[in-house]
Amino acid sequence: MTAATTPPPGTDRPAAADIHRGLAGVVVDTTGISTVIEASNSLTYRGYPVQELAASRSFEEVAHLLWNGELPDAGQLREFEARERAMRPLDRTTAEIVARLPETCHPMDVLRTAVSFLGAEDPTEDDGSPAANRTKALALLAKLPTVVAADQRRRRGLDPIQPDPSLGLAENFFHMCFGEVPAPEVVRCFEISLILYAEHSFNASTFTARVVTSTLSDLHSAVTAAVGALKGPLHGGANEAVMHMLNEIGDPAAADAWLTDALAAKRKIMGFGHRVYKHGDSRVPLMQEALDRLIAADGSPETTRLATLHTALRTAMVERKGIHPNLDYPAGLAYHLMGFDIPVFTPIFVMSRITGWTAHIVEQSEGNTLIRPLGAYTGPAERHVPAA
Ligand SMILES: CC(=O)SCCNC(=O)CCNC(=O)[C@H](O)C(C)(C)COP(=O)(O)OP(=O)(O)OC[C@H]1O[C@@H](n2cnc3c(N)ncnc32)[C@H](O)[C@@H]1OP(=O)(O)O
Ligand SMILES: O=C([O-])CC(=O)C(=O)O
Fold first, then answer.
1. Going by CA atoms, what residue is nearest to atom 2 of ligand 2?
2. Residue 274 annotated to the active site
3. Which CATH class name applies to 34-232+349-366?
């Protein structure tokens, strides 16, 4: 809560005590999709702890749960998977747009443009109904990995690889990026990251999607805006920033001194801190375990160096500031070890969060109220335009 100048009463002039910068601590609506349970530091999707979902379910099952409120039975899952697999290929124009965007732009810009273009093309009747929105959402879930993979390949000077409908979403993504599917433990680590990234209540990008939806705009407009919000390094962009930071530090023995300098320079340490979790992100232990399995399976000197550096920085940050890592800290290094290029990390987050965003778009549409807060005016008092 931050006081501005003493505000006179009237529209857009709330009392100073009512100003909540960054909406910190403000409850803006109800939601039935997910919640953080502070007492147990756990996160539930539609009531199920995310740890239990990550232990035994596929990302596709979690997407079904977020959208429909229940886990699918065997028949529902078969149908859901068949529809997702059928929608993966890009039409020629979308593929050409992805191929022609400048390689100097960030892959999140490519994804944002692709979502916007797919919206212009989408054949689904735009009545804003939950059924129409779920169909649009499924098409995006299916196509976004194809866009991300094709974009990574063109930047490496390679042709796109067509999706393989015999593979699940996670395996198919590796196939489209690298032309091969890695060991099951690697795919599982990736799938766990997708499950953990899928949904997190009223975070900045989801809230963005809800704001756009609240004007009765369409799903693709809301998702396009959400991609833009996720790109920033204070939000989803942090998983890339973590890897850039580790590369900047380089030597594990330098972590402590680097942190001293960075904190003295008032730099934000990427992958640490969180608006909601003040004693540690509920998703980190599971992602860190998955990362540790990747590290153990690799064992190369380069991986050992990175793992030692990662641990050294985490230990120093927790000791010095009492600020814990968020999900982006282990996920960033995990994506690097899986072979993805750094600028693809946040697009991978999008491939997962598309489920949460669109669940919220449907929820917002079903009980809509226009989202329009007030700002406390601090500009000049009313005055008159001088005679010309
Ligand atoms: C999936 C996700 O989006 S998770 C978030 C990913 N983002 C990052 O990792 C970026 C780095 N982290 C941050 O910038 C912040 O922790 C945020 C933006 C995530 C949360 O910010 P807020 O809730 O506004 O935290 P807030 O600013 O109140 O932090 C409290 C104090 O801790 C400090 N702090 C918080 N996080 C960090 C950090 N990563 N590095 C250094 N200091 C930090 C703040 O500077 C502040 O110090 P002060 O009281 O001396 O001013
Ligand atoms: O909840 C937040 O503010 C950010 C976050 O961790 C997420 O979106 O997963």
1. 203
2. yes
3. mainly alpha
Check whether 8 has a pLDDT greater than 70: no
Nearest to 41 by CA among 325, 323, 281, 286: 281
| The pLDDT of residue 155 is above 60 | yes
| Average pLDDT over all residues of the chain | 95
> Residue 292 class from Cβ within 10 Å (0-12 exposed, 13-18 middle, 19+ buried)?
middle
The ligand with the least distance to the CA atom of 21 is 1
Q: What integer is the mean pLDDT of 23-52?
A: 95
Other CB atoms within a 10 A radius of the CB of residue 100 amount to 8
Ligand 1 site-directed mutation target among 196, 246, 259, 272, most atoms within 8 Å of CB = 272
> Which is catalytic among the residues 151, 218, 281, 328?
328
Closest CA to 189 of 347, 350, 334: 334
> Out of 64, 175, 235, 274, which one is annotated catalytic?
274
Q: Which of 11-20, 88-97, 190-199, 295-304 has the lowest mean pLDDT?
A: 11-20
For residue 49, report the phi and psi dihedrals to the nearest 5 degrees: -60, 135
Please name the residue whose Cα sits nearest to atom 41 of ligand 1.
268
Active site residue 106: no
Q: Whose CA is nearest to atom 3 of ligand 1?
A: 235
Dump pLDDT digits (tens) for 281-319.
999 999 999 999 999 999 899 999 999 999 999 999 999
pLDDT of 124 reads 74
Report yes or no for ipTM above 0.85.
yes
Ligand 1 binding residues, C-beta < 6 A: 22, 234-236, 238, 268-275, 323, 326-328
Domain ranges for the chain, please list them. 34-232+349-366, 238-337
Task: Give the architecture-level CATH label for domain 238-337.
Answer: Orthogonal Bundle (1.10)
**pLDDT surpassing 90 at residue 122:** no
Under 8 Å between Cβ of 165 and 108 = no
Integer Cα distance of 380 and 363 in angstroms:
40
